[in-house]
Amino acid sequence: MANPSLLILAGDGIGPEVMDQVKRVIAWFGDKRDLSFDVSEDLVGGAAYDAHGTPLHDDTMARALEVDAVLLGAVGGPKYDDLDFSVKPERGLLRLRKEMDLFSNLRPAQCFDALADFSSLKKDIVAGLDIMIVRELTSGVYFGEPRGIFEEGNERVGINTQRYTEGEIDRVARSAFELARRRSSKVCSMEKANVMESGILWREVVQKVRDADYPDIELSHMYADNGAMQLVRAPKQFDVILTDNLFGDILSDCAAMLTGSLGMLPSASLGAPTGDGPPRALYEPVHGSAPDIAGQGKANPIACILSFAMALRYSFDQGEEATRVETAIEKVLADGARTADLMGEDGGTPVTTTQMGDAILAAL
Amino acid sequence: MANPSLLILAGDGIGPEVMDQVKRVIAWFGDKRDLSFDVSEDLVGGAAYDAHGTPLHDDTMARALEVDAVLLGAVGGPKYDDLDFSVKPERGLLRLRKEMDLFSNLRPAQCFDALADFSSLKKDIVAGLDIMIVRELTSGVYFGEPRGIFEEGNERVGINTQRYTEGEIDRVARSAFELARRRSSKVCSMEKANVMESGILWREVVQKVRDADYPDIELSHMYADNGAMQLVRAPKQFDVILTDNLFGDILSDCAAMLTGSLGMLPSASLGAPTGDGPPRALYEPVHGSAPDIAGQGKANPIACILSFAMALRYSFDQGEEATRVETAIEKVLADGARTADLMGEDGGTPVTTTQMGDAILAAL
Ligand SMILES: CC(C)[C@H](C(=O)O)[C@@H](O)C(=O)O
Ligand SMILES: CC(C)[C@H](C(=O)O)[C@@H](O)C(=O)O
């Protein structure tokens, strides 16, 4: 049987250096666990723009549609701030999401015991926190038409369209309910049904799917503004949160920051199952390209390595091997290894990106 | 000279009981400070729906356009959850905002020294916090057309439109810059210009207004998802935050919850100056109608009383009298009076809504 295939798109800023550590972990699986991948690499974001004048070359797009999973580092940086909207680094990522049809974005917000002190929240509020946000990723205001800046009378008007079909809501709701069954069977869906008709349809369809096919799931609905409040007030009341593309963008970042350690959080973006194969999938850390520290060996590679662990679990049915990676990381943290982002005020010497990779390989 | 006129719309849930305490404060100003108001009262939200089948009667709307300021309690409750979208309690409030053209919504997120322990955040992160969020309130996705649920092929689609004209962005930016001049002259504007064209126009116009007429203002721009993160991570980096209607809804609730005491936070919604007079204005607490505790004398009237203080400052040019109210409230808190929402885990006996009113009047 052919090896499963992986496309690595390291991207911009700290993307390449954290991805270097992921490659070492991938190599380790080939050597020690007889689990080899066919790895290819390509450019995305600013790096692709510099080489080809586009944030995602068509050949790269085609390759992403062929492989079993894509691993992405990060995109963007101040160098590209003044580029035209259509070729900004982010467009490369958004094109991947859309053309791979990755409608279900899983963003865990998990607070690691060894790091609970890093949160700006009180320890008892966040210790043990383990939320999974399921964010719709291929529709809503990110992709709705009409969109653009238009002349109207003697002024300009900026327009975007929030748009959800029943089918789009239905499929992402199912993915949240499936996931919830493997956790605590509790889902909270968030929208602004008190203000937006798209939110009314969202609420109705989510409820209908639950009633028809997931009666075992405890489903609640919350307005997104209250959701933001409740995340800050008492985040442990949540298990799975289901929400749309734009609310998901904001609420998942809010939830991520509750944990205090952004450098630790992975994400998975999944499509529909393709025939017998795994679903199309893209894995990436939640953190951005951090241009201010890029190239200095300061970046924390853990979020990116945990993204690979998610790939093992969701794309390659290797849940045990995923747990192996996660356990190794917990051990390394418990032993006290810290990259610069994880240093407390009391100081100590941070480890470099490569040293963190060394420690994780040793723990494996 | 005629007394300034006030329209009180107490609304639903705890609205009427917190407003009762405001009325006592208003009466105190007439008795003791020779500052009398012509007060009229009417219905809004579910209360108006129960009486008239609409969440805002046309006569009430007309009256709101005549008076110098409107004080609103709260709208909504589970009783009205199944009403049609067009007559939900919220529509009454949204109609007031729109027809009074209250484009600038000021939402202070202030952490009271005596209450810093109530925050879910660490004390040093929030003690002394004093942010002012300026939220655009009459446009964006709340009001953009087309909107609704439509048939498309054999499924339904929910549509809302995010829409901002240059003029709408310009005027709310000016209101934020004016306000910033009376504070620290620092404004951070938030949008998703990396994903939404309406955000690109927003960023461009805000920058242009700053460069042309407010060169003394230090202006920065931030993506709204990062804004949510930064609010949780280190809120004191902000002074004035300027943002649109939907992001403002979520971010201001997030910011409010950082302070730990929602029952304390007022808001002002201001229109353009009308001739020589003050701008059209509506003042309301940030908290909702809290149907679970309504009618039990447990509600905290402070946010609503502080909303009246904002009216003194922004509508009636009585900044000193506003400060008088604020100082009285600080004193009452320092003396230890606490409604149920402000009770710590260590217990003690909470004061009732009326007792809190008594204490504030005594302190005045
Ligand atoms: C980079 C940007 C386009 C993206 C988004 O807005 O979705 C990012 O914020 C994210 O959450 O993955
Ligand atoms: C009640 C509701 C319509 C309103 C809004 O979404 O604006 C509320 O959440 C607010 O922030 O004032």
TrEMBL record, chains A, B:
Chief localisation class: cytoplasm
State the EC number(s).
1.1.1.85
Cofactor(s) needed = Mn(2+); Mg(2+)
Which pathway?
A: Amino-acid biosynthesis; L-leucine biosynthesis; L-leucine from 3-methyl-2-oxobutanoate: step 3/4
Question: SMART domains of this UniProt entry?
Answer: Iso_dh
The record's catalysed reaction(s) read: (2R,3S)-3-isopropylmalate + NAD(+) = 4-methyl-2-oxopentanoate + CO2 + NADH
Pfam families in alphabetical order: Iso_dh
Residues annotated for Mg(2+) binding in this entry:
225, 249, 253
Marked site, Important for catalysis, at 142, 192
**GO MF annotations in UniProt:** 3-isopropylmalate dehydrogenase activity
UniProt entry tagged with the keyword NAD: yes
- Where, in this chain's numbering, is NAD(+) bound? 77-90, 288-300
Instruction: Name the source's superkingdom.
Output: Bacteria
Location in or out of the cell: Cytoplasm
Per the annotation, how and in what number is the cofactor bound?
Binds 1 Mg(2+) or Mn(2+) ion per subunit.
Sorted UniProt keywords: Amino-acid biosynthesis, Branched-chain amino acid biosynthesis, Cytoplasm, Leucine biosynthesis, Magnesium, Manganese, Metal-binding, NAD, Oxidoreductase
Q: Which residues bind substrate?
A: 97, 107, 135, 225
| Signal peptide location | none
InterPro entries given for it?
Answer: IsoCit/isopropylmalate_DH_CS, IsoPropMal-DH-like_dom, Isopropylmalate_DH
The function of this protein is: Catalyzes the oxidation of 3-carboxy-2-hydroxy-4-methylpentanoate (3-isopropylmalate) to 3-carboxy-4-methyl-2-oxopentanoate. The product decarboxylates to 4-methyl-2 oxopentanoate.
Q: Outline the subunit composition.
A: Homodimer.
Fetch the PANTHER family from UniProt.
3-ISOPROPYLMALATE DEHYDROGENASE
Identify its protein family.
Belongs to the isocitrate and isopropylmalate dehydrogenases family. LeuB type 1 subfamily.
- Give the protein name, as stated in the record: 3-isopropylmalate dehydrogenase
